[in-house]
Amino acid sequence: FSTFNPYANDRSGVSIASGFVDFATGRNSIVTAPGPGTPTQVKVFAFSLMKPLTVLAADVAAKNKCPGPKEAAVTAAFMPYGIGYTGGVSLATGWVTGPLGGAEAIIVGQLSGPGTVKVYSSGSALQGGPKVYLQNAMHTPIPTFTDIAEFKPFDQASGVRVATTSTTVGADLLLSGASPADRTVRVRKFQLVRPTADADTLVARQINEVGSITGAFPGVLGGD
Question: How sure is the predictor about 16, in pLDDT bands with cuts at 50, 70 and 90?
Answer without folding.
Answer: very high
